[in-house]
# Entry
Amino acid sequence: MEGLSMKLVTAVIKPHQLDAVKEALHAMGVAGMTVSEVQGYGRQKGHTEVYRGAEYTVEFLPKIRVEVLIDEIDVEKVVDAVVSASRTGKIGDGKVWVSSVDEVIRVRTGERGLDAL
Amino acid sequence: MEGLSMKLVTAVIKPHQLDAVKEALHAMGVAGMTVSEVQGYGRQKGHTEVYRGAEYTVEFLPKIRVEVLIDEIDVEKVVDAVVSASRTGKIGDGKVWVSSVDEVIRVRTGERGLDAL
Amino acid sequence: MEGLSMKLVTAVIKPHQLDAVKEALHAMGVAGMTVSEVQGYGRQKGHTEVYRGAEYTVEFLPKIRVEVLIDEIDVEKVVDAVVSASRTGKIGDGKVWVSSVDEVIRVRTGERGLDAL
Ligand SMILES: Nc1ncnc2c1ncn2[C@@H]1O[C@H](COP(=O)(O)OP(=O)(O)OP(=O)(O)O)[C@@H](O)[C@H]1O
Ligand SMILES: Nc1ncnc2c1ncn2[C@@H]1O[C@H](COP(=O)(O)OP(=O)(O)OP(=O)(O)O)[C@@H](O)[C@H]1O
Ligand SMILES: Nc1ncnc2c1ncn2[C@@H]1O[C@H](COP(=O)(O)OP(=O)(O)OP(=O)(O)O)[C@@H](O)[C@H]1O
Ligand SMILES: [Mg+2]
Ligand SMILES: [Mg+2]
Ligand SMILES: [Mg+2]
# Structure
């Protein structure tokens, strides 16, 4: 059954890194993505973090959530590409997580499973 | 154990189709939904797509994410209803995916599982 | 293998309860969270619900989605804390759900699994 299931890779990243992530995914042939604006904090809650050149002590900072549905067979290379492209080396670079999806449907065509990606 | 687990149906659709999706879900007795604004692209990244009468060559287009927690027993009919109501037949109609949830809790009452839906 | 897997706890709550949820999670040592603005309705769709002192008959009301990646070993206490902190006792208090994640990566360090939380 290998290669027959789909995964959802979710990343919460710095807004400035979105272009790099998009390019990295495009370069490896990932066909689509969904992004949304979120806010969050990680382990340095209450400490300062730099955003757009200013120091913030507020707890929530703007982040971007990226979601990519992929063939399970590509999960390691997609995760590595997203992590690489998101990394600046400074605190607050983000988290990436992988979850399983039972089914995917492409609305226009009704295709299901890997064909729907 | 059939009928004892819950699924999350997520759809990323065209904003204009939200009312149709909402009506379709309501008509079949689905008790609730959560929506949020997202942006995305699918297979035509870099090509034009029409949104509100104008052609866009920008890569990200506004979409709506719909999330519905349901009894697993209803998953096929809910997916079919969402796909049907989202479809315009033009590119960019969206993706629907299904994932498993371990537990659901209704905050006000503390009910869990299917009773919480 | 117990304690070696991660869970994602998602809550859709009243905006006014976010501070209470944040404090409850912080008090129990949860290291991070992601929040976003959503809209939704539950079982009283079409009935009135009070938001910021005014009655609404519109169907969608503003809610906040909270997402927390945690060690599976903490799932019960995190769920209980979120449910407790979200509860006002009035309709519309929200839903909390738990799902499984296969992998988590901390972008800056490349750590994986429980070390990435
Ligand atoms: N446990 C968590 N659950 C849900 N979201 C989280 C969690 N931890 C972090 N996030 C999200 O990821 C974003 C970035 O987190 P961040 O990179 O600061 O994590 P970190 O573990 O503190 O790593 P670093 O030490 O590199 O800052 C946060 O703003 C938040 O949106
Ligand atoms: N692989 C994917 N991962 C995550 N989200 C996706 C993916 N593909 C598409 N989406 C989301 O779904 C939205 C609609 O995608 P779209 O309908 O264009 O898919 P498609 O496969 O290109 O189908 P079509 O050929 O009908 O346009 C995108 O804007 C994006 O938000
Ligand atoms: N089945 C569902 N699927 C997805 N999201 C839901 C669902 N039900 C509720 N929600 C989300 O949770 C929010 C709060 O729901 P709500 O608390 O009204 O649930 P309820 O079951 O009607 O409980 P109550 O009777 O206490 O109002 C909604 O606005 C919506 O965003
Ligand atoms: Mg941090
Ligand atoms: Mg497309
Ligand atoms: Mg309700």
Summary: Chain B has one domain: 6-116. The pocket of magnesium ion (ligand 5) is lined by residues B 42-44, 91-92 (CB under 6 Å). Residues 75-86 of chain B form the longest helix (12 residues). The mean pLDDT of chain B is 90.
